[in-house]
Every structure is written in structure tokens, then in C-alpha cells.
């Protein structure tokens, strides 16, 4: 029996990077997958093909998860695709680089709505489904080491991840009687498209590696492995926590 036999997972923001790796890992472990992104392009189509090559089903739903109604509709549509939803992976996230004194309301709302509000109401929709059908569920949120450590010029991003940390702790207590577990995964410096500039600029990369005891960037697959563990029955007594995937960065970090 595979780890996620007869399970369905929704992974938001799964066109590339960590989200795509999570979708592929869950599929490799036996889950059918609902993919999501702002648009379906060749990246999403390629991931569908890879999942189907693993012998699992895959379906892509287009949604901007920064809007409350969009994310509620996304969860409900995901449930309708295969008739059930067992695992919700809230991976979609954004960041904006700006000095605090120059951050606009538009930038602030874009970050907070995507990284916190959308997740809040997506989980709510999933919980309502679980309650109405008297079934348990698992939620894994993609946080960041910056729920814990500073990130100058990314104040809204840090605030959103700090909020996600507290939301997860609070919901762990509130949802435990419903047999719904919830945890955060907090990646550090991961080799993804969002870090393309970093990886192509030796002096920037060296500054980051100086803060990582393992002296290397992580991979999306490193993160996906932890997501799969937390989503599985191997972690059936684990809820309300954040797990860092950072090569030792968090408690070694020093601002340059």
C-alpha cells in the first residue's frame, strides 16, 4: 500500500518550484493531485504529464488565491473534481522588496492577501467540508524562516509569515477535536525560480551561504519530502508546529 492510497491533495501555487515538487512527491506517494496557479501554461501541463506518468490523476484549477471568494471556490471545485479532498497544501506565496517607508497599500495588500488572508479562508472552506462530511483532514502551510528571523526591506512578507505561524498554532488547538491536523513548513534558501538572481550572482550567493552551516542551498524536493511526511499518517500525532528546512540557517543567521 502506498502512503497516500485513495487520497486527494490540493497544492496551491503548484506550477513551479516548491509547489510543483510537493505535487510530484505526493503523487509519487500515491495521491491524486489538484494543481493550482494563476494560469495554466506549459509548466502546469508538464506537471500534469509527470503526475500521470506516475500512474496518478491530475487536474489543474486556475485561481488567484489572494481573493477570498476565489480561494473558497477553489477548495470547493477541488472537492468536486474527484469527490473528496484529504490534504490541503497552502503553498502559494508572494514577496515584495521595498524599504518599509516606501511600501504602498497596494503592495502590502498583495502580500498579506496572498500569504495570509487567502490561506485563512482556504483552510476555513476545507474545515467546513470536513465538518459537513464528518471526516478528518490535514493542512500543511508553506511558511518561511522569516516567520522567525528578520528580512529587512520585506516587512509585509515577514508580517504575513509571522501571522501564519500564530494562525497555525491557534488552529491546531481549535481543529484537533475535529481530527484535522495543521503544521507549517518553513524553507530557508531554496534553489527555485524566485531565487534565480541570487543563484546567478556569486557575491550575493556567497553572502547567503555564509549564513548556512551546511554551505549549500536546499532543493524543492528537500521541502516536498517534509510536506509529504507531515501530510501522512507517519505524523498523525504532529500538529501546531513549524518545521524548518534551512540547512541550519535560522539559528545561525546574522544580518550583514
UniProtKB/TrEMBL annotation:
<keyword id="KW-0560">Oxidoreductase</keyword>
<dbReference type="GO" id="GO:0047936">
    <property type="term" value="F:glucose 1-dehydrogenase [NAD(P)+] activity"/>
</dbReference>
<dbReference type="InterPro" id="IPR036291">
    <property type="entry name" value="NAD(P)-bd_dom_sf"/>
</dbReference>
<dbReference type="InterPro" id="IPR020904">
    <property type="entry name" value="Sc_DH/Rdtase_CS"/>
</dbReference>
<dbReference type="InterPro" id="IPR002347">
    <property type="entry name" value="SDR_fam"/>
</dbReference>
<protein>
    <submittedName>
        <fullName>Glucose 1-dehydrogenase</fullName>
        <ecNumber>1.1.1.47</ecNumber>
    </submittedName>
</protein>
<comment type="similarity">
    <text>Belongs to the short-chain dehydrogenases/reductases (SDR) family.</text>
</comment>
<dbReference type="Pfam" id="PF13561">
    <property type="entry name" value="adh_short_C2"/>
</dbReference>
Amino acid at each position: 500500500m502506498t502512503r497516500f492510497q485513495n487520497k486527494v491533495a490540493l497544492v496551491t501555487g503548484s506550477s513551479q518550484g516548491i509547489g510543483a515538487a510537493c505535487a510530484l512527491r505526493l503523487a509519487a506517494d500515491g495521491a491524486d493531485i489538484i494543481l493550482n496557479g494563476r494560469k495554466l501554461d506549459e509548466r502546469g501541463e508538464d506537471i500534469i504529464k509527470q503526475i500521470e506518468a506516475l500512474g496518478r490523476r491530475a487536474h489543474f484549477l486556475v485561481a488567484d488565491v489572494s481573493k477570498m471568494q476565489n480561494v473558497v471556490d477553489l477548495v470547493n471545485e477541488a472537492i468536486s473534481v474527484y469527490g473528496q479532498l484529504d490534504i490541503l497544501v497552502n503553498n502559494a506565496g508572494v514577496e515584495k522588496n521595498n524599504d518599509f517607508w516606501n511600501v504602498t497599500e497596494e503592495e502590502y495588500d498583495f502580500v498579506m492577501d496572498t500569504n495570509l488572508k487567502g490561506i485563512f479562508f482556504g483552510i476555513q472552506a476545507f474545515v467546513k467540508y470536513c465538518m459537513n462530511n464528518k471526516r478528518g483532514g490535514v493542512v500543511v502551510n508553506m511558511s518561511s524562516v522569516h516567520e522567525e528571523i528578520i528580512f529587512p526591506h520585506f516587512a509585509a512578507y515577514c508580517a504575513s509569515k509571522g501571522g501564519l505561524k500564530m494562525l497555525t498554532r491557534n488552529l491546531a488547538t481549535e481543529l484537533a477535536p475535529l481530527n484535522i491536523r495543521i503544521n507549517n513548513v518553513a524553507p530557508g534558501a531554496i534553489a527555485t525560480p524566485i531565487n534565480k538572481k541570487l543563484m546567478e550572482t556569486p557575491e550575493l550567493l556567497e553572502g547567503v551561504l555564509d549564513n548556512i552551516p551546511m554551505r549549500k542551498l536546499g532543493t524543492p524536493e528537500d521541502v516536498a519530502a517534509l510536506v509529504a511526511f507531515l501530510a501522512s499518517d507517519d505524523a498523525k500525532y504532529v500538529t501546531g508546529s513549524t518545521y524548518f528546512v534551512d540547512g541550519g540557517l535560522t539559528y545561525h543567521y546574522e544580518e550583514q
